[in-house]
Each structure stands twice: as C-alpha cells, then as structure tokens.
Amino acid sequence: MKKFVDDIRLIYKCCSLYYEDDWKQQEIAEYLSISRASVSRMLQMGKEMGMVKVEICNPGLLTYDRMERQLERKLGLREVIIAEHQPFDTEEEKTRRLSEKAMAYLCHSLKDDDMVGVSMGKTLYNVAQCKRIVPHPIACTFVPVLGGLSRENPFEIKIHSNQVAIRFAEAFGSNCIQFFSPAIFSDRTVLQGFLKEMPMQNLFRYFEKLSMVVMGIGESSVVGSTLVQNEYMTSGEMEQMIEEGVVGDICLRLFDKDGDMERFAHFNDRVASITPESLRRIDRRVGITYGSSKAKAALGAVRGGYVNVLITDADCAQRMMDILDEKESE
C-alpha cells in the first residue's frame, strides 16, 4: 500500500493548510484522518521537495544581526548583542543604547531565585541606572564579586561593586549582599589571611551558587584604565604592564590577548575578587563593553573563558571582526 508521505497531493495539501491557512498539526491530522507524526513528516517532505521555502525577514531594526552571528560562530560565544548607533551619536547616546540593550537582556534572562554576580565600573553603573522599565520584580539576589573601592571620591564610591549591586537590586525589586573589602591589597599575604576569615568564607560560598555574572571589561591604557584612575597603579606601572602584553582586566585581574592571567600573578594575586576558576564555572558570564579601543580586551576576555555572552557596540564589534579577519589572513 502506498505510504501517505509519498502522496504528493496530500503533502501539498498538508503544507497549504499549515503554512497558508495557519492550521495546527493536530487539526490537520484530524481533518485528513492521519496521524500527527505523518503530518510532521509530510511538512518536512514539502520543504525537501521545494514546495515550501522559508524566508527570514529582518525587520529593519536588527542592523547588526549578521555580525552578531559571525562573532558567535568565530568565538564560540553563547550570545552576542550589538547596540545600534548612528554616525553622529554623542558618547551619552552610545552609552544609553548599550545600557538599554544590556538591561533588556537581563530582563528576559533573570528569574526568581537566581544568584547574580556583579563587578564594578561606570559601564555597570550606567546599566543599573538605565531608564528602561523592568516589567515586574524578580526575586533574585545580586552579589558583588569584587571588593569595593577605598577612595573617598563620591563618584568612585557610586561605581564600586557594592553600590552597583544595590542599584541593580533597586531596579529589579530584588535583594543584594555586600562585599566589605578593599578591591586590591598592598600585600598578597595580607589578602590571603583576610580571605580565611569566616565572613569572607561565607561570602565566597555565594560565588559557587551564581547562575550569572555581569561584568565590565576594562582596557589597559594609561588614560582610560580604571586601575590608573583609582591609583591602584601608576601610569608608569601601566606602561610597563602594556609592554609585558596586558590588554585588559576583568574584575580588576589583568590578562593578555589570549586571556592568560598567570603572567601578571604578581598583581592579580593581590586582588580581592572571585577567582578565575570560579568565574569560568558560572553558566552565563556576561561581559559589557563598548568602543573600538576595547576590542582587544574583549577578545582576550572571551579567549580566556571569562565571558560567554558579549554585549557591546558596533565600533567594538567591527574592530573585533577586523582583528579576527587579520589573523585568519596571516
């Protein structure tokens, strides 16, 4: 007996009812007195025989969709989100667009009972302050993964990890905890002793429960570096680090173009933050950065496994693509 799935007339009718008349598969099965599995197979046959052609239409707002997919494939990233910009956008407008993209991602990704790590910096502060309305409260907990800044400059206090956690908790109607510690210690031995104290041990247990961490990606430069601006190192020391190959930092830990942190252990071992090993074990590691000058830092953060979701702008994304293309052509 001839199989249903070999009947061209029936295959066409199935496809017409499903795609043109918007019938459900179960409705088609009952109407034609065949099984739902047969309907599914005939719909697939319709595609293979050329009866059905699926076309994905970009709505016009997704200008950088192709670049996002390219970066995801080339770097093995879970997701890339690129904020659109116009040729004459001001710095404030670029920051706003990036912050809105980041907040939109958090709104649809976070769920009740999530433990969410946050680092520090202007980028995260801007995201937390974003005017985008959170549709409903989310009962998650924001956890600083980095000690706070110790200087008394009011703006710097606003951007350290404890304040960033508070701002995010306020935005989402959720909870937060605090990480009471200097960000960087003057002596590695003092830091190791401090981390053995019970309050710090309790805090570090939270790190093992994180389902997501949201971090800024810092660039290594004499002018733009958070480390220099906050006097954790002098401009001369930063110049020396750059000569040694540093391209950026994440949670204030330095890394090179391949994401290697070991070369800078003499500095990194004094940073009070989540360890690189614990960071890599977190399911969603979201890095947020923008500007073409951050491209090398973003690539290093990805290659080191510290970031698997990247939210950036078109300038940074394009420069990343250029660097990757240059390497492939060598």
Write the layout of secondary structure elements.
Blueprint: H1 8-20, H2 25-32, H3 36-48, H4 65-75, E1 79-83, H5 91-109, E2 115-118, H6 122-128, E3 141-144, H7 154-159, H8 161-172, E4 175-176, H9 188-195, H10 198-207, E5 212-216, E6 218-219, H11 226-229, H12 235-243, E7 246-250, E8 253-256, H13 265-268, H14 276-280, E9 284-288, H15 295-303, E10 309-313, H16 314-329
Helix pairs in contact: 1-3, 2-3, 4-16, 5-6, 6-8, 15-16
Describe this structure in words.
The chain is of the alpha/beta class and about 325 residues long. Helix content is about 45%, strand content about 10%. It is built from 16 helices and ten strands. The strands form two sheets. Strands 1-10-9-5-2-3-4 form a seven-stranded parallel β-sheet, with helices on both faces. A three-stranded antiparallel β-sheet has the order 6-7-8. Helix 1 crosses helix 3 (about 35-50) and helix 6 runs parallel beside helix 8. The N and C termini lie far apart (about 60 Å).
Produce a short descriptive summary:
This protein is of the alpha/beta class and 330 residues long.
Order of SSEs: HHHHEHEHEHHEHHEEHHEEHHEHEH
Low-pLDDT residue spans:
none
**CATH fold description of the largest domain:** Rossmann fold
Structural class: alpha/beta
For the structure shown, list the relevant keywords.
330 residues, alpha/beta, Arc Repressor Mutant, subunit A, Rossmann fold, 3-stranded antiparallel sheet, 16 helices, 47% helix, elongated
